[in-house]
Structure formats: structure tokens, C-alpha cells
Amino acid sequence: MALSPIPAAEASAAGGRRRSCRGTALPCPCGYPHPVPKNIPQAPVRGLMLDFSPLRRESQRPVEESNGRQGENHLNNVIIIGSGCAGLTAAIYAGRANLKPLVIDGFEPGGQLSLTTMVENFPGFPDGILGPELIENMRKQALKFGAEFKSGAITEVDLSKRPFKLSVGNDVHETQALIVGSGATARMIGLESERKLVGYGVSTCATCDGYFFRGKEIAVVGGGDSAMEEANFLSKFASKVYLIHRRPEFRASKIMVDRARANEKVQFVTPYAVEEVLDVTKGGVESLKLRNTETNEIKYLSLSGMFIAIGHEPNTKVFRGKLDMDENGYLITHHGSQTNVPGVFAAGDVQDHHYRQAITAAGSGCMAALDAEKFLEAHKNS
């Protein structure tokens, strides 16, 4: 469907009842509710998403029992924040070092990899492996070596002295060493209409929600590798995918742009910016109001859903003023994984805004665990 000067009346609404991508009332790991278009069957969808509940039940021992093994004052040797590639690798290494790590899942259990389809560049899998499957395997491996998992997110930290104190809801945990692997969260455009329609046609998770838009026309907003990858993935379900970017040039690598251009279902729409998502009054996405960034011409694009792929924000808000970070909020590390606070280490996307790969996250998780082990050994009497 081409760009038209007025909203197309025949656009199909993508509004509907909020529903988890797992087909249950449980929240999705990506942290956002997900849309179910009104005219698509309400079938449970579990395909690419993991339900970590059985693993959590297996790993969550009573606090008194788990912490009691690490000292009469219920003191943890090491707490790991985040359960993505970095956090789980750190848990595996810390577990093998007999540190009995406690892993706090965070806002996005499994991290970004749990929202990815096929991973083709992780060493050891010549035929590739699904991102959720890789995360599940890593989690099981961490459990095998004695890691304990707790669902929830850190709400407050006290890093002024050791042992460090971390609040998870109403619970307070103490630890001699801390590994921050809390990752990054999807960035939104910032429109009021976009915010109101999250879960009603607006999504940040192609893997979670692509199924719900079978045979529909949708848009992906962004110009990086993630946007290209999501456009190609969504073309498996949608009849047409509009890739909207505010500039004619793209940040994405040439190979990813070429793949998207070669996909007959993907149509590039540049240089346009999304000004408004319509129609909030009807409770669903019916069209997008677009502005040409060079001429300011206004166009409307009728469709049923919009996927945001414009980058991520590091999950470091709780550490502001307590750990050194750059202007974008990414933690600053030195001499490997060390932060400015002795005993606090960082790994994965929370401190890496450049590579952001599963293998580099895993590698930095290994580094953080080794650094934490060395630190604890050097301070075992303090």
C-alpha cells in the first residue's frame, strides 16, 4: 500500500486485549505488554519464548537455607544482577568457583537473547541455535554449578561500604562482591500516542509479537542492524513490512541492508519520521502520521502495527551517582570488568555500547566472575 495524503479508512485496527507473548497472564521478559489484533485467534503462542517458571521454582531455595550456607549473617559471596548472556556466564564461572552466586533476574529475564530468533554466530553451533534455547541451556548450566535465582529487579543499592546492600522489592540482600549484568532496554520514540498504544499494536519485540500480525501490513522504525533483522523476521508473518527511517542513510551494516532490500516484502520509507500513531481513540493502530525530514511534507501510512527498533537504554538508573558511567548511562569499566567501586564489576551490554554481541557479553561475564573471585580471595579476611 502506497503513502496516501489522508488516513486510509480501510486500515485494520490492531487493537485488542493485552495478552502475554506466552499465551498466559504472565508478563513477557521484554517488559512490555503485547498486542493481539482483534481478528486473529487467541491461540497460546509459546514457540520462541521461554517460560522460566519451572527453572525458577527449581532454583529458588528458601532465603534462610541458601544464604545460610554462605555465613551465619546470611551474607552472599557474590550477587549477579541480570540473567542474560553476561549474567548467566558469570553465574556459571562463579558457581564452578564454589561462590554459590545469587542471580537476580532483573526486568528482562534472559536478556535480549531470549527475544532473538536464530543465532548463527555463537561458536559451537554450526547449524545455529535459537536465542531462547541458548539462554535456557546456560541457565541450566548455572543451576548445575550451584547458582541460585531470584525473580525481580533491584530497586535500591548501597555501595558505600562492604558488604553491599541490594533491595529487591521488600527483600534486602547483602553481598561481598557484586556483578552488574543488567543489560539494556529498548528505546521508544517518545510519542504520547505510541505510549498509549503499547500492547495495542505498538511493540518493541518482533519475536514476541510477529505471530499476531499474520497477513497484516506493519512497520518497523529504525535504521540499525536490529531494524533490518526485525524487518526480515516480521516478513515471515506480515504481508508487507514498511521500514521507516528518518534519514536516507542507515547505521546498519551493508550486508544487513542488502538482505532487507532483497526481501520483496520489505519496503523502505525514507526520509520519514513518525509524528503520531493513530488511532488512540479507537484503541488500536490504524495508521501512522509521517513527516518528511527534508521537506516537512506530511503523509499517512495505513497499517496494523508498529515495531520500534531504535536502540536501547542501559539499565543503570539505580546506579546513578554511585557508579561511574558515560553520558549515555553505560557503566565505565577499567582493568577488565572493574568499576570505580572496589568489589563491584560490570559485564555485558550494561557497559558495552559498541559490540553488543552475545559472545562478547558472555566473554565479559566470564571476566567479571574471574575478577570477582580474585577480589574475594584477596579480601577474604576483610
Task: Summarize this structure as a short list of keywords or feature phrases.
single chain; 382 residues; alpha/beta; FAD/NAD(P)-binding domain; 2 domains; seven-stranded mixed β-sheet; five-stranded parallel β-sheet; 19 strands; disordered N terminus
Blueprint of the fold:
Elements: H1 53-59, H2 63-68, E1 75-81, H3 85-96, E2 102-104, E3 118-119, E4 129-130, H4 131-144, E5 148-150, E6 156-158, E7 164-168, E8 171-180, E9 184-186, H5 192-196, E10 202-203, H6 206-209, E11 217-221, H7 225-234, E12 240-244, H8 254-262, E13 266-269, E14 272-278, E15 287-292, E16 298-302, E17 305-308, E18 312-314, E19 344-346, H9 358-378
Parallel strand pairs: 1-2, 1-8, 2-5, 8-19, 10-17, 11-12, 11-17, 12-13
Antiparallel strand pairs: 3-4, 6-7, 7-8, 9-18, 14-15, 15-16
Helix pairs in contact: 3-4, 3-9, 7-8
Q: Might you state the CATH topology name of the largest domain? A: FAD/NAD(P)-binding domain
Structural class: alpha/beta
CATH class of the largest domain: Alpha Beta
- Provide the CATH architecture of the largest domain: 3-Layer(bba) Sandwich
Q: Give the CA-based shape.
A: elongated
- DSSP helical segment count: 9
- Give the strand content: 15-25%
How far the N terminus sits from the C terminus, by CA atoms, comes to 68 Å
CATH superfamily of the largest domain: FAD/NAD(P)-binding domain
- The strand count comes to 19
Q: How many structural domains are formed by the residues?
A: 2
Radius of gyration: 22 Å
What order do the SSEs take from the amino end to the carboxyl end, as H and E?
HHEHEEEHEEEEEHEHEHEHEEEEEEEH
Largest sheet: 7 strands, mixed
Mean pLDDT: 83
Q: Identify low-pLDDT runs.
A: 1-53, 55-73
Helical content, roughly? 10-25%
